[in-house]
Design brief:
2 strands; two-stranded antiparallel sheet; 9 helices; 2% strand; 73% helix; mainly alpha
Amino acid sequence: MSYEELLYLAPYIISLILSLGVFIYAWQHRHVRGATSYSWFAGGQTLTILGFILELVSPDLRGKILWDKFQWLTDTFLVILPFLFFSIEFSEYRLRRPSVVWSVLFVFLGTFTVLLFTDNFHHLLYPNPSLSAAQPFPELKYDFTYIIYIYALFYLYGANIYGISLLIKRALQPQILYRLQYLTIIFGFLIPLVLSFFSLANIKIASQRDITPISLAIGNLIVAWGLFRYGLFDIVPIARERIVENIND
């Protein structure tokens, strides 16, 4: 691999290392409320960035599509879904009909997964894949179909906005003792969500159309700062807050 190629990959490798560090930290604190689901979330981000790097360095169209599908799977099951679990658990929100909610969600995800694996027959996700002439790595290009837009509207934005709204509602409660911790998490989650719109709208603000690794790096920088500055998964503040909330006047 040439010096130019290594320099091009450097931001993505840094993002990968940062995500891995957040995953290790969260996993070490998995006994704390929300830390297990967050560690899955950070691990999913790590795999997504790794898949993006492998897609970049793949020399042919078939290899790039393979690793692009890998990123769809990690985003779906190891990033967005764990974030939904985390936001519900960390905000202590109780779903009214959890069996119905999770059943509908998993039917949707199962249908999308089947479409992803059978795309060679119907081409509903990759209608016209091609490689650009970008240097030093050709970029996988394909038009976004209505399936992708439905997925993005219902799941990517729907699930993330719902989870973030739960955290915001929790942070705005008057008796909350650790509002800054919640706001740090919220801001770290908002960055990748907002920046993902540019990829969906086919607006290039970087060398590649998909800026997910960069947006995840920015979000992880904020979360990492919160982890070490505020101790987001410190069991003592959470326990103390719960005691104060339930104490008799």
